[in-house]
Design brief:
By secondary structure, the chain is an alpha/beta fold. The protein has four helices and nine strands.
Length: 178
């Protein structure tokens, strides 16, 4: 189980357009916002990632890099990037489902075509949003079993401002007896 203030698993995936996202090699003063999304088949993901794209520059102003990652292949990830007209947000693809599990993500089975007529993969990861400190320790995480009711990026941005202003530590770190 991932724990706040503890090192996260490594995360290395290819990026749409070339290169790789390697969490351990990120060079940002405050860390990285990692958004795992279900894939091209999910219309809610497209709406959600559109919000993330609009705020990626705001996260960058606060010293945070941003990336959206799915288990989709390169072609479907590129289609999602194009669909939301992303220019700031990096898109990682081919997330191994074993890695998704290491990150605490839930895995679902495909159920055919979605409401927008795109086939779901046989297996795919459900959404998760993570704020990882520059030293690769977990600051914040939220994982879902469904595509609905996700954290809002604007609220996360406000929380980042609060954490910076108040030097607020990651919470939920206690793992002793209760």
């Amino acid at each position: 189980m991932l724990m706040p203030r503890k090192k996260t698993p490594d995360l290395n995936v290819p990026l749409v357009g070339g290169g790789h996202f390697d969490l351990s090699a990120e060079d940002s003063p405050r860390g990285t916002v990692v958004c795992f999304y279900r894939g091209l088949h999910c219309p809610i993901c497209a709406t959600y990632l559109t919000e993330f794209e609009k705020l990626a520059g705001d996260f960058a102003e606060r010293g945070l890099t941003s990336v959206a990652i799915s288990s989709d292949g390169a072609e479907r990830a590129a289609q999602m990037k194009t669909k939301i007209a992303a220019s700031q947000l990096r898109f990682g693809h081919d997330l191994p489902l074993t890695t998704a599990r290491e990150w605490g993500l839930f895995i679902s089975t495909g159920r055919g075509k979605t409401s927008i007529g795109i086939e779901e993969p046989a297996l795919f990861a459900e959404p998760g949003l993570f704020l990882i400190n520059a030293d690769q320790t977990l600051y914040y995480m939220s994982v879902q079993t469904m595509p609905f009711v996700r954290p809002h990026f604007r609220e996360l941005l406000g929380a980042v401002d609060f954490a910076i202003d108040k030097n607020y530590p990651a919470r939920g770190e206690y793992d002793g007896p209760v």
